């Protein structure tokens, strides 16, 4: 697969990951709002107020998750899928002796055409370790040694 096409597909998988997180958060907000609206004030006033407070906490938690997903989307949209670099940087696909990595956002394991890639943030511990390295360079993290075999 051509390097630029690989980057675009990995970028799209990361975008899909963010969209799923945003949808889940929005559904949580909608469900909490609906539950709050359906909750009628009963004779047990404390129970009603406690229920409303719990729904508000749930809404706030989901709003925070939605905000975090929006930040990830902004970060992802700043990463170019074009070009090729001689050293590891944001947007690089890095092949090592211990796995394949896409430096973009922390999105976990991505599978593309039967191959496994780890979507990691450039600010993650492994992202920081490999940033700026070139093909042939090595580094260790948590007692595990990595050697960069290819950078796309």
UniProtKB/TrEMBL annotation:
It comes from the Bacteria. This is 3-oxoacyl-ACP synthase.
